């Protein structure tokens, strides 16, 4: 007929008589379907449409027809063992069967298409969750909802636990980061302090080297200007007191000792001692003598200044004059400056005065 009219034909049929005790579910029903061959081979997507038509026919027409047939048989007294319990065929959701199986016999138009569980067809077509048919039983829906709610509750509890663990780990991490920042800040401050101290030490070393060079130069100049007295033997003798200070008199050892000679020797020694004592006074330069007179200092200051010339480095002159000799700071400063001028030494205020102030 299709060849004559150019039409398309699909025939659907199910048997009302099923295996005794088989539950009324779509996967327990097989539909016999006649399909014009060109529908499958020439129309794209025809398998999906045919599979949906067959599944709807089984759910909406096949299952009610089977139930009606069983009621009619029971009403007419047909004793079929409907009390037996049979198990519906299992359905493979992972590898579902083809939408339209191959014809039986081969090269024919007859196809045996089994029904699928509720919603399984759409899952097989789209690869998504099962499609809920409008006539799915209410009990099945409630079971699905209960399962979904249980899963949701379980996932919510797991999410809460994970979130709590994440917060705890985040707090620990933040505390560790804060501690590391504090330590890094302290380390940076310590490095900066060490760098500053190294710079100060380097400057101090340079200043010490500079001052040492000045001291060595002044000591060399001072040594060149020191008066050189001829060597003579010394013995301890009586003390001779001068106007400035009292000092032990060093006498030459006499070859012959008697009363007259001893007296004359003592007089000569005293006279020699006075001349030698006057030598330091005469050795002071003009600038130093002028400063002593201008400041009105006593004559004993000359001996003190000469003692500084001979026995102390110029860097300590100011300290000795101001601390030990009782001379005021301004006077000591003027004297030290005049002494450097007389000796031709370089007067470094930071060296000569700064050290005493420190």
Percent range of helical residues: 55-70%
Largest β-sheet summary: 3 strands, antiparallel
Order of helix and strand elements from N to C terminus: HEEHHEHHEEHHHHHHH
Low-pLDDT stretches are 131-137, 229-282
Q: C-alpha Rg, in Å?
A: 65 Å
Distance between the termini: 129 Å
- Global structural class: mainly alpha
Keywords: Coiled coil
Coiled coil: 173-214
Biased composition (Low complexity): 262-272
Region (Disordered): 253-277
Task: Describe the secondary-structure layout.
Elements: H1 2-5, E1 10-13, E2 30-35, H2 37-42, H3 46-75, E3 110-114, H4 120-126, H5 138-225, E4 235-241, E5 246-251, H6 259-283, H7 286-295, H8 300-311, H9 317-323, H10 329-343, H11 349-352, H12 354-357
Antiparallel strand pairs: 1-2, 2-3, 4-5
Helix pairs in contact: 6-8, 7-10, 9-10
Condensed summary:
The chain is mostly helical. The protein is built from 12 helices and 5 strands.
Keywords:
about 350 residues; mainly alpha; 3-stranded antiparallel sheet; two-stranded antiparallel sheet; 12 helices; 5 strands; rod-shaped; coiled coil
